[in-house]
Structures
1.
Amino acid sequence: MCYLSPVAVAVAAVAALLAMDSPVVSATKHSHSHWAMTRLTFEDLKYFAELGCLLEFEASLIMPIMHFVHGETPTDPRVLVKSMKALGAENCFISSDLGQIYSPLPVEGMRSYVAMLLQCGMTADEIRVMFHHNPARIARLD
């Protein structure tokens, strides 16, 4: 197990347990779940999903800004789709993490991201769950 995983797992476990009894928090999320800098394994992500966490997959992961800003190679969208499918759309949400001066505008970035996810095998229903339903759960709007 990598250096960050034990800490991340402990934090997620506590947050998930707190979320179960909290009238304010309806879902726990894990941000930047697929970034190399987090050093999380797929097994870590599966464990978080089992705890009830929603896992974030950002559009910025597939953009050239990953190399420019973070020194990471942009992720192949097929890799993200494989992870999303294996974890289940009900355990994931998508966001842009864009809008910085050197990145695409969030709306344009999300439009491209959704198109790539669809092209790589996600269904319109899965996108709807990850882009509308699950964020609404986080914000307690469901």
2.
Amino acid sequence: MEDLGIRFDGLVAHLRRELPHKLDHVVFADADPEKTADTIGAFKYRNAGQVCVSPTRFIVQENVYEKLRDGFAERAALPVGCVHPLPKGLDPVTAALAEPAACCLSGLEMFRMPPGATVVVMGGGIMGLLTLALARRRGAARLILSDPLEERREIARKLGARVVVDPTRESLPERVMALTSGQGAEVVCEAVGKPELVAEAFTMVRPTGVLQLVGVNPKGSRPPIDLFDLHFREVRIHGAYGRGTAFRRALALLPRLGVKRLIGAKFPLARIEEAFAHAAAGRGAKTVITPGA
């Protein structure tokens, strides 16, 4: 892809492992700034920026940074309808949670939350914790979260989880069945993206309940469930791709969700390596880099 002004090599593969979620673009010093700006500008706003190949970060070598910045700025004009004012009481750092919150909300809006529902969330990363907070807002009566990290379980408690489980110390399905008199939960959300956890989540859904796929499983994964059991128990399975039309509604909800505590740490751009190390260590739920700080 040299002719597009972008070079990929082993360094990019390494960075891709270190910077999860959406695709990251790395621009080296020998890149053509104009061609690069044309290319990444198109990727950035593909399908309104909601697809996972739409980059959220650009890693740029210093001596080409200013030319790329200026070139990209000329290509980044947005229709006024794509610009959302921040609601009163929402600071810019917490507002950065709007995109993942919208993805979680889009999934939860695919079904009506049953009255008095027990909701199980597997995984206390940013997507799991936002799903937990939004499920509570949408009427869940009892929230259960499973995560091996104590820090994340404590955040879940503060967000309203009545029960938190360390899956390395006890069986989550057994705990859920004990709490629901053997019936299972009305809603189970798998927020990690592992087929084996999807299989475990399916066992905890009560008849006519919902299995919500929040985590993204590897491409090529096959449903790890008994299809007869799916039919017999009338379980509904949902998976939301991107934020759909939920962005504006999620942004409006953020000031009322109490999710500011999800920001585990803030780092200036000069400490970017430290920020990535902090995130890779699984500390907190969300690590934020503030370029202007």
3.
Amino acid sequence: MKPASVRVVVSGSAWMGGSLGSVESALYRMFEQANDEVIFVVYSISGASEMLFKQLVAMLQRGIRIRMIINRFADQHISVQRQLRQSWVFTGAYVGSKGNHLESTKEVNPGVFGPAGNLQQRRRFPDFGSIGITSAEGNMTYHAMQLTANRRLAGGVTVLANYTWSKNIDNASGNGAGDQSPRDGSNFSAEKALSSNHIPHRFVGSFIWEAPSFHRTSPWARQVLGGWEINGICTIEAGTYFNVVSGRDNSGTGINLDRPDLVGNPYLPSGRSKADRIAKWFDPAAFRQNAPGTFGNIGRNLLQGPAKASVDLGVVKSFFVRERHRVQFRAEAFNAFNRVNLDNPNANIAAPAVGRITGDSPPRVFQLALRYQF
């Protein structure tokens, strides 16, 4: 019989997906009779066929069936605000969030290290290929101190500045996509670490300055010199954390997300030149390949990447044409000072360019616009 591909998504008694008619019907009946238990299962099974349906049922009955629990979030917030003089308002706040039973993907048909044979022969269920499911094993916590200063419009100037000091921990960033999936789907607790979204320090400041209107000058001078608005945004933030991987399937699972063993200090001196930091952001010699049959002794997102800073500036001016008709001119510069914001380095210790930074954020961009309002 020609191999086919089956995708199973079950929510309660609802059914979607599948390419084998009789398999669909049998699975539907099986899940419909699951003691009214709400089930959410996602399978991507390659090489399945009707001949293998009995093995599929046995596999589900042996504990791979997932009971999806509704995501739960708890948020906390407390703030203190103080006004100074007439225009300045200062705010200090604590913000916290906790999430449980979050969606994350994992492999439930990995290879088993030890037995002879290729990866397919060593899988828990060798009649099937890779099986990725969505489970509710994701968890996260977020705590932050937020300080805000706000200067309300006075004298043609308004200012807003915000600083955040935070910590974000999870066990599967981005629903477990990419290198954030668990190395071992049966051990989510080993994935608890700083989130790939964790930015411990972040400052954002903005201003708007409305230039004088020159209302005591001639109409021509007022039209040309008056009514300009200058604005800007400055963003400074610490680098994000990234995963160091082995680049080899030493564990024999076929997941290819092994992490190496840490045998030294991966941090290099901070006073090095920019060229040196680009060439070697961390010390690859601090890592070695994990031993066969192991997943490595380091946690997820061990190292921090380069910090980023950017200033965006804009100039806006509206020219009066006649009643209810105006032309607005806008000039904007993104990353106005053309600062090079480096990407995270290559963190695959099996790669020739391990430790090297090979990318950066977009350079300065100018944008001019005219808008006719009527």
4.
Amino acid sequence: MAWIRSTTNGNVNFDADKAFATKVQNAMLGALRKHDPATPDGGVKNDDERDSPWGVLNDISLGNSRGGAHLSRACLVEIEFIDVATVDRLLNTGSNVEDVRNDLAAAIARALLDELDVSFDADEHLTPIKRDPAVPKTDRSTDGSDYQLPVWADGSFPNLPWKMATVVKGMNSFEGLVRNSFHKFEAEEAKPKAVYYEAKFAIDADGSGKLTPGDTSDDNTSLHDKDDVAFDASKFPFIVLPLPRTGTMVQDHGVKLGDLGVCFYKNAKSVAVLYGDLGPRDRLGEGSVIAAEKLGINGDPLRGGIDAGEIGVNLPRHSGIVHIVFPGSGAAKAHLRSNDRAGFTEHTPETVDVEARSLLAKLVG
């Protein structure tokens, strides 16, 4: 459960605290129920239900004052009671304690990141979102209506039905994703189902190709070619799918390894790709060496790519790589195993190009 200061105990921003506590509580509950579906929902409670209020939630101590600006939000979380045998096994003595704790911590962290509007930089340090002073946070949309495509995308590909797509909530905690850019197209008549998002483009040099001296890339990829050999990142255009996580994730929209897509960048450059490797759970925006080069991006795994700061993921004006992906499009040729985390595909770079662009043409109509 999550506790908040009650109005009778002097809370000067009760509604904001309650919304924040609800976000944290839901994240925590989802992580726990992944491992124990019977976990009860303690909900959000006011501290006037206690004999005495929580001192750590005192607004004066938090620097809040009635009518003040930039008020801190606060809640106190009680995860579970360790004297309950099932809870003790879940969080303390069980065989998968580490996974439970990691999932729980990650879920709460994502809720905090979403609330605080911060992201991870390339070294996994927290970096504040840089805002246009003319656009106060309180005026920013929470439903994605403030997102606009880069000028070059709308101008270079005007026939794509961008305005038919609807924003997908809950995705902003992905590092590298332009805020509110994750959208979906619903399938209709002859048009395929699709999702699109704007993101950075880190270099994935994993696979069977020759590594750059000093590079620490893996010699394997999650998906292999038709001969069951890891992709060569210098020859096969692929992008990276984040591993499944607690809460909202790309896989919620039917996307799997082997699915096809097209990436767009400046000067009308594009490359047909498939999801060929799995990457960190909380990152979006990574692709193979050859995919980067076809987009006009430096494909050097040590010095290349385009990071989140370069594209302005949290700025009103941004210019990332736009990815359009077609959920389920790889099923006919992908043979997956290990809970869809490995396998091989019959696709070649040539068939990826033909089939992905055919799907794109159908989306245009």
